[in-house]
């Protein structure tokens, strides 16, 4: 699947964002190696980030629930009215590193150009548990 197609699916998902407080709507589309796409939206609550969830984590959890093991790329779009550069927050980056270490992150810059980064580029020197 082309990056443009995945961005289009993320834009479509974004329409269902439940960003009732910030009004910053985020939509994502996650492509797995099996060819399935899982979408996600941000869901907000009055205590930001306590009960709500980011679009990226929602999509990844949905994929994990469906026994997906390998993740190829995730497209992310966000903004209030117009789309602005939107990359994953730190919590989502850490989750991606744990469950999707080879994933590519596809996002738009402020000029609507498609950008591609690996999770290791977005989260270098990652936290790692040593047991
Ligand atoms: Zn996040």
Structural class: alpha+beta
What spatial form do the alpha-carbon principal axes imply? globular
E-strand count: 5
CATH fold-level name: Cytidine Deaminase, domain 2
Count structural domains: 1
CATH architecture: 3-Layer(aba) Sandwich
The succession of helices and strands, N to C, reads HEEHEHEEH
* Bound ligands: zinc ion
Fraction of residues in H or I helices: 25-40%
CA-atom Rg in angstroms: 14 Å
Termini, distance in Å?
38 Å
What does this structure look like?
The protein has 131 residues and is of the alpha+beta class. It has a single domain, classed as Cytidine Deaminase, domain 2 (3-Layer(aba) Sandwich). It is built from four helices and five strands, in the order H-E-E-H-E-H-E-E-H. A five-stranded mixed sheet has the order 2-1-3-4-5. The structure holds zinc ion. Zinc ion binds next to helix 2 and helix 3.
Describe the protein's topology.
Layout lengths: L2 H12 L10 E8 L4 E5 L13 H11 L5 E9 L10 H10 L4 E5 L5 E5 H4 L9
The protein binds zinc ion.
Descriptive terms for the model:
binds zinc ion; 4 helices; five-stranded mixed β-sheet; 24% strand; 131 residues; 28% helix; 5 strands; Cytidine Deaminase, domain 2; alpha+beta
Structure, briefly:
The protein is of the alpha+beta class and 131 residues long.
């Amino acid at each position: 699947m082309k990056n443009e197609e995945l961005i289009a699916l993320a834009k479509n998902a974004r329409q269902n964002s439940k960003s009732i407080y910030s009004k910053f709507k985020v939509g994502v589309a996650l492509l797995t190696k099996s060819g399935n796409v899982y979408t996600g939206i941000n869901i907000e609550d009055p205590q930001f980030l306590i009960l709500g969830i980011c679009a990226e984590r929602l999509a990844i959890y949905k994929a994990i629930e469906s026994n997906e093991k390998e993740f190829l790329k995730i497209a992310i779009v966000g903004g209030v009215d117009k789309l602005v550069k939107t990359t994953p927050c730190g919590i989502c980056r850490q989750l991606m590193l744990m469950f999707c270490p080879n994933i590519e992150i596809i996002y738009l810059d402020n000029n609507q150009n498609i950008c591609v980064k690996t999770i290791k580029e977005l989260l270098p020197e990652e936290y790692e548990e040593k047991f």
